[in-house]
Every structure is written in structure tokens, then in C-alpha cells.
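Q: What does the assembly look like in three dimensions?
Context provided by user:
Components: two
Sequences:
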Amino acid sequence: MIIKIYENLCKGIKGCGNCIEVCPKKLFINSGNLNKKGYILPKIVDPNQCIHCKKCELICPEMAISVLEESG
Amino acid sequence: MTSTIEYLRNNYLRNDLLPSIFCPGCGNGQIINYVLHAIDELKIPKNNIVLVSGIGCSSRIPAYFDTDGIHTTHGRAIAFATGIKTTNPKLDVIVFTGDGDLAAIGLNHFLQAIRRNIDITVICINNENFGMTGGQASPTTPMGSFTATTPYQSIEHSFNLAFLAKTAGAPYVARWTTAHSREAINSIKKGLKKKGFSFIEMLSPCPVSGKRFKSSHEYINYYLNNSIKYSDKFRDETSSHLFSSLEECFITDHEGKIIIGEIVDIDKPDFHVLYKKLKEAAKNEFWKSRQ
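A: Here is the predicted structure of the complete assembly.
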């Protein structure tokens, strides 16, 4: 599973944090890193545990998360 | 291989304007996401869509779409949309409006458009206050809430817009929160396909101006745990909520639960079909009288 976070679009986990809330496997955690605009970014713990429910992709207000099933 | 979300962003949105100007955690971004998915799943061509909006945070939404759009005066979005749809009934007209825009200044336009059964889709992003101007109380602010203009709790009864639309006779009414993604997308799809006025109310977080929670994920948690599906058992159609005491603030609907779900789904002849029929009948009668 490839989960990609577009760092320049993300609005941070402090005001938003929807991805952390909705993930049923709790794969998103605070990364402690800031992006260019100073928002705290989330990061993914273990992409192999992802069950491809796409909840994070749908709930993200900035469309900054993309979940791809690995082909082949 | 391009990802779906990347494809949607590149195909339907104006990428140079992203990231949006909305506050972190605002529900408007989620509405953009849901509408994009709905349009993409229905395969509506981009040049057949017209987005109309009034004034408010949510009325900024059409600016991000790479489609035709019009940003109109306060509360008059539905009036403009009526004009567009009546002139060219082939277009898919979507109205984005906030609760202050729709329920405060534009309430009569809303009711009259339902009465005429204009074939438009209205998506009301209801954040229960006037977010753009600093969180003043709006007609949908729940009784007992703290806002900028009601610092000692609001004592006014509030509108439930979905039930208001049902009472006025709208053929399709749904009410969801931003936490219910798939349901909202399906409702927007149904609303776009419906011949007639379709109204989708979306309860949305306002973490900056709203006084309830300070971040979006708390709102999402609240929506998921405090919502109840509209059914025979929960048919509280009163416009407001009854409390035993003022301390019971933040209670939105029946027994402290937010009623969500598809509320109306019926078929009704719409304005444009009837107008076409009337025009033909009148024409025939005119020529008959001349013979």
C-alpha cells in the first residue's frame, strides 16, 4: 500500500487532525516536523497495515492524502 | 500511474489556488472533496456544471473549481441559480451556501424555489454560526450555545433546515455531517440526478469561530458519536429542541442526538418540464384562435 501525504497542502494536525481521528488502524501519528507554512505534519507508522478503506482520503479537507493499492 | 485524488485535483480544481484559504480543519474543504467525488462518479462533463454561491466562507468554494461559477450577492444565490436554470435547463446547477446566507437573509428565496420546484441542487454548509464575520449567532445556532453575540448562551430557538425544506415540499432532502463521507457523496449524487429541488444540509465544523471545540478532529468524534439515523423511531420534526434547563447546551436535536439521513425522496414534476408543456399548449391555442 502506498500512502502519500502532500506536505505542501496539509493544514496540520493541531487545528485539523482528521486523519488521526478516522483511521481505524491508527496509522497516523504526529511526526513533529513542520511544513513550509509552519503546520505540524502527520506521518504514517506502518503502511503495510493499511486496509484500504480510504477514510483518510475522503475526510482530508485539503485532499492532501492519497491511498494507492500497489498494482501487481 | 496517477492516483485518483491527484487526478481529481488536476482535472477539476484550479491547482494554482491550492492550498485553499480556509482555516485549518474547516469543513468546506471536505465538501469540495465530496462534490468532486460525486461529479466524477456521475461522469458529468465539466462544461455542463455551473456553481453558484452567495456570501460567506462556504461561498468561496466555486472559486476553486475549474468550472463555470458565479459569486453573487448575500442570500440571493438561489435567485441567481433559478435564472440560470430557467434560461438553460440542460445545465447542472449546484448552489453552495452557508447557514447565514440561506437561513438568515435568503430564507424566502429558499422557500420560494422549493415551492416552484426548480431543478437545482442546494448544498448548505451549516456551521451553526456566521463564521466569516467572527462567529455571531445565526438562525441555526442551537439553543444554549455560546457565540460572539450570545456570550451568556443563546435563548433563541433554532431552525432545522432539513425539516423546513421537507415541510415546504422539496422532493429530495438529506442531512449529513462532514464526518459521514460516503453517505454524503451518495446523497450529492442522488441530488444531482434528481429532477427537482434537492437540498443537502451538511453539518460542518467551525474550529476557529465556533465555541464548541477548538479542533476539527474533536468535531468529527462528536458527530460520529452523537448522530442518529432518521427513521420511524426518530421523527422529531419540530424546528427546535426542548430543554429542561439551559445547562443542556450544545444539544442539537432529539434527545441530544443529531438527526441525520435521507429525509425525503419522492418524485414531483419540476418547473422546467411544466413550463415547456405550458408553452406548447399556449402556442397551439393561440394558432387555433387565429384560424
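Follow-up: The longest strand of chain B covers residues 258-265.
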